[in-house]
Amino acid sequence: MKMSQLLSPQLIQIGIDGSSKETVIQSLIAILENNGLVSDPEQAFLDVMDRELQQSTGLEKGLAVPHGKSTAVKKLVGALAVSKEGIDYASLDGEPSHLFFILIAPPNMAGPHVMALANIAQLARSEAFRSKLAAASSPEDAYRIIKEAEMGD
Amino acid sequence: MDFRTKPEKIMIYIEASEDSIIAAQYAVCLAKWFGARISAVYVVDIKTLQELTRAKIFVKLEEMDYEKALEDDGTHYLNHVRELAENKGVPVETILLKGDVFAEVAGRMKQDNIDLLVMGKLEEPESRRDFFYNTNERIFRRAPCPVIIVKDSENIKIMYDNL
């Protein structure tokens, strides 16, 4: 599943409330909740944090992909938050994270979850894509950047 | 396939989706009419799981957990296809493979000399990248035999039920 199919401008936030991993994840889940995509935000938070305990999903080059399986969602859901300043997310390269893609899937939806994660991995390999997205001026702008990257432009 | 004869070996490419089940119903109808046998193939996409681990999005334990989940999905869908075929008296073999989806399906078609491939509807390609890299597009375009793409239709279920 492509990110443009999973996201919409309503599921993208420029700027994040919070300065720690926990508050970032809470902010991302709040986006999902505000769009009616999470029935139990606390459970969703615990499930995503459970995955964080295995290894930080703060990767390298400013990208973080918090994810997990949770009964708090009925289908695969996702949101994106962008922090221009960067947040200490205990990333693997020790650098601040700027792009936060959260993906949560019900426990029985492994296939679409894997394909959506693979889509993020593919897009985020491009430094130009990461830079453009980190500089997005609005949710609509961010969504357009994602869509164009998927089109191969 | 020798076009002077009817297809004898029909492969259904199965994904964990309702579209695949509709395609399977259609394939069972074709097999019944032609007196053909069916092989239903599902591939656990190990290649993508490994790429996610290399990209550090997955940890190794998570990769194994998802592999098991995808395998369970495949077994579930293949069992369903087996039932669909057996209910209509069509000989069926279910095959669960692991690896690169395109390579595994293409390899199996060649190995088994498949006469006809049946698969669920394709997503609308939005870019040249989709044409070249989308797995289902590649399977469709590079199959060494005729391919039938089954679009969602009420008629197929009726056709299957009335078989």
From TrEMBL, chain A:
Listed InterPro entries: PTrfase/Anion_transptr (IPR016152), PTS_EIIA_type-2_dom (IPR002178), PTS_SugarTrans_NitroReg (IPR051541)
Molecular function per GO: transferase activity
Signal peptide feature range: none
Cellular compartment(s): Cytoplasm
Name the record gives this protein: PTS sugar transporter subunit IIA
Residue ranges of domain PTS EIIA type-2 in the record: 5-149
Taxonomic superkingdom: Bacteria
GO cellular component terms listed in the entry, alphabetical order: cytoplasm
Protein's UniProt keywords contain Transport: yes
Alphabetically ordered keywords of this record: Sugar transport, Transferase, Transport
SUPFAM superfamilies: Phoshotransferase/anion transport protein
Main location: cytoplasm
UniProtKB/TrEMBL annotation, chain B:
InterPro entries according to UniProt: Universal_stress_UspA, UspA
SUPFAM superfamilies registered for this protein in UniProt: Adenine nucleotide alpha hydrolases-like
Domain spans labelled UspA: 8-151
UniProt-listed Pfam families: Usp
Family the entry assigns: Belongs to the universal stress protein A family.
Protein's recorded name: Universal stress protein
Species assigned in the record: Candidatus Auribacter fodinae
Lineage, opening ranks: Bacteria, Pseudomonadati, Candidatus Auribacterota, Candidatus Auribacteria, Candidatus Auribacterales
